[in-house]
Amino acid sequence: MTTRQVEHAITVEAPAAAVYRLIAEVENWPRIFPPTLYVDHVERGANEERIRIWATANGEAKNWTSRRTLDPESLRITFRQEVSTPPVAAMGGTWIIEPLSGTSSRVRLLHDYRAVDDDPDGLKWIDEAVDRNSRSELAALKTNVELAHASEEITFSFEDTVEVAGAAKDAYDFVNEAGLWAERLPHVASVRFSEDTPGLQVLEMDTRAKDGSTHTTKSYRVVFPHHLIAYKQVTLPALMTLHTGRWTFAESASGVAVTSQHTVVLNTANITAVLGPGASVTDAREYVRGALSANSRATLGHAKDYAENKR
Questions:
Q1: Which of 1, 71, 90, 271 is deepest in the core (most CB within 10 A)?
Q2: Alpha-carbon distance 59 to 79, whole Å?
Q3: Rounded to an integer, what distance in angstroms lies between the CA atom of residue 66 and that of residue 240?
Q4: Angle at Cα 33 formed by Cα 29 and Cα 35, nearest 5°?
Q5: Residue 286: enclosing H or E segment and its boundaries?
Q6: CA-to-CA separations, 259 to 168, 225, 227, 229, in angstroms, rounded
Q7: Which helix (H) or strand (E) is 254 found in, with range?
């Protein structure tokens, strides 16, 4: 069996410990790494953990489970896919963070992998995916670590919740069945929806704004019946460089609490172009929050009606 070993590296203007922490805390990954859609923990120990990752590779969404060993003393994290997705037969590697000075560090990303049946086409596909993803991950890591302190003002999260006197499954079904949203939601003009892999959805839709204009967004969604739908937008409106979110369905005494949560990083370069020459970051925050919240509350309201009528 042919095992390929490759290394990618980048210099980051941030302390090594800060870089290590960002990579170690997987909740950050959809915000740091462009290909990553969602990550959760399967098991957690002191320095050993199992995580599930949903990510895109060469434009296709895939998911896998990895085992990680964390070594905060030497600033190393090793990882190994437990069950790989064809054409990958085996995949593992190491993050190594090396201090260059008190304020800068070198990040090395090592990979080793094999293709199913040593297939040369499969190996070529993996070579390209690893190279592309490693470059984009390291470039994004550099950008996001360096911006971490500066970007607090432009990064924000918020949520809207509605109490539903109905079943969690029915409220979940309404949000899960996004392919029907053009018929069910007035603010959705059209939808392209697919779920080729169960639990992993691609949702592209044209949404109407209050002024009558429409804009197109594309998201990948990871769904966990009947309690969570997590998503990451990959085609974004002009005022955002990042938008992740989650729909949660929590049983309550009176029925179910349905929450729509958003995390946003503003695209400051486009603020004046979109909102006018005098517009500030505060104006952009209010505008984006208002637009996202209006759509969320509309969807929550219709989900509530749907679930309560089902009762």
A1: 271
A2: 23
A3: 30
A4: 110
A5: helix 281-310
A6: 12, 15, 10, 10
A7: none
